[in-house]
UniProtKB/TrEMBL annotation:
NDH-1 shuttles electrons from NADH, via FMN and iron-sulfur (Fe-S) centers, to quinones in the respiratory chain. The immediate electron acceptor for the enzyme in this species is believed to be a menaquinone. Couples the redox reaction to proton translocation (for every two electrons transferred, four hydrogen ions are translocated across the cytoplasmic membrane), and thus conserves the redox energy in a proton gradient. Its main location: membrane. It is found in: Cell membrane; Membrane. This is NADH-quinone oxidoreductase subunit A. Belongs to the complex I subunit 3 family. Keywords: Cell membrane, Membrane, NAD, Quinone, Translocase, Transmembrane, Transmembrane helix, Transport. The keyword Cell membrane applies. NDH-1 is composed of 14 different subunits. Subunits NuoA, H, J, K, L, M, N constitute the membrane sector of the complex. Its EC number is 7.1.1.-. The lineage of its organism: Bacteria, Pseudomonadati, Bacteroidota, Cytophagia, Cytophagales. It is a multi-pass membrane protein. The chain crosses the membrane at residues 15-39, 70-90, 102-120. InterPro entries: NAD(P)H_OxRDtase_bac/plastid, NADH_UbQ/plastoQ_OxRdtase_su3, NDAH_ubi_oxred_su3_sf. It comes from the Bacteria.
Amino acid sequence: MEPEVSNPQYLPGDYLPIIIQFAAALGFVVFAMVVTHLIGPKRKSAVKNASWECGIESQGDARTPISIKYFLIAILFVLFDVEIIFLYPWAVNFRALGVNGFVWMLLFMGLLLTGFYYVIRKGVLKWE
C-alpha cells in the first residue's frame, strides 16, 4: 500500500495550460490591434484632428489646476469600495469562519472605522 502524499509537488508542466491561455489571449489582442490598424480607414483632416469635448469646441488651457479635493474623494471612494469587496466573502462564509473569523472581521472593521474617523477629522469630505 502506498502512503498518502500530503504535500503534492507541482511540476512546471502543470502550468502549461495557463501559459497557453495567456499566450492565446495576448496573441488575440496583438492580432486585433495590428489588423485594425492595417485595414482601418486613414482619413485625416483639420476637423477630425481638432480637440472636441462633447461636441463643444475647447477653450482655454488644458493645464488648469484641479483641486486636490477631487483626487482625495476619488481615492477614498476606491479605498472604501475595495473594503466592501472584503466584506462580501466574509458575510457569505460567516458560519464557516466561526468566532475566529468574527474577531478578525471586528479588527478589520475597527481599522476601517478608525481610518474613516481620521478622514472626517481632517475635513477631507467637506466640499467648499
